[in-house]
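Quick one: structure tokens for this chain, please?
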Amino acid sequence: MDILITHIHKLVQVREQAIVCVAGAAMRELPELENAYLAIKDGLIADFGTMDQLPSITATQTINAAGRLVLPSFVDSHTHLVFAATREEEFVMKLQGATYQLIAAAGGGILNSAHKLQKATEAELLAGTLARAWEIIATGTGAVEIKSGYGLTTRDELKMLRVAREVGKQTPLTVKTTLLGAHAVPHNKTKALYLEEVIKEMIPAAAEEKLADYIDVFCEAGFFSPEEAERIVEAGSAFGLQARLHANQLTNSGGVQVAVKTKALSVDHLEQIGPAEIDLLKGSTTMPVALPGAAFFLGLPFAPARQMLDAGLPLGIASDYNPGSAPSGSMPFNISLACIKMRMLPEEALNAATINTAYTLGLAQSQATITKGKKANVFITKPMRSVATIPYSFSTNPVSQVILNGKLLTPSL
């Protein structure tokens, strides 16, 4: 064996067989083994069990995890990790009462980030993004989705996607990429002209270079309508890009309806949804994903998690890490928000941040649970009694050591 972790206080998210996702009442079930071991070989989970079942194993490295938990790494299925600069000036405007829409109308928001990104070189973008990538690794993330959307020209959107792909090569993160050309309309184009660019230039170019796995649209009042979103999604689908949508963040935008109709893998935000959208999501293949960090930072209502779960829906949680509305990639903090502000149980929130988000990235069969044969992406916590300590200690990073692709990373990450 390459790594043997012994005397684990609790080995969490143990599943004998790989599962697709969990929904409704099943989200309260988070299987654990107490006083356990975990064996890793060739980058994969080779074996696990209780210490009294531990076979004779010779390992290159043995870690005593007494008093600590071991969990599968988080899967952050919604980020804007590639950006050129932070936006503290807009943060101050928010403190003075400006809304998201007012900031955008004043040339801030997405257009502000686009202006700065268009001036940045690919090397400059990569340096900043790599720093953020190692930051999220240190808080337990092992797989991440990275969107474009701050380029707003074909050249700059492709530049962002190339940087995102490079992050997957230069770090141990599993990286999935999403073309979000339809994030906003640039100042120098009408919406009609920009839609033509996204559909006829941007999508084909991203597909030709194999830079994107998914297509996304900001389906929101003042940005892109449901009809426009559906048109863009269909154009992406023609090039093999599956849909995932921003929807119902600021208004009841109709984005959930588009997501279900187009069989999007996920529909994200959902601060503004009601019973009709919840009913529509029932029986669909679209995973609702809440982004509590954005609701927290913008002072918006939080997605109605309890209503969704009580209706039998699955739910994912992601960070929405971006410079304008969620400048944090900490999945533990988002789990805390899900529990404190969305009234989710710790077990529900951890399922939401692992197996359910893995579903939206096509990773449910390879990551996000402790299952033999899955990729050995796990982390060892600091000493703690139970998983409830993670959301309870909302400002503390629970991670002590990280193992990604079966390799132990230094504790000082």
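The first strand starts at residue 3 and ends at 12.
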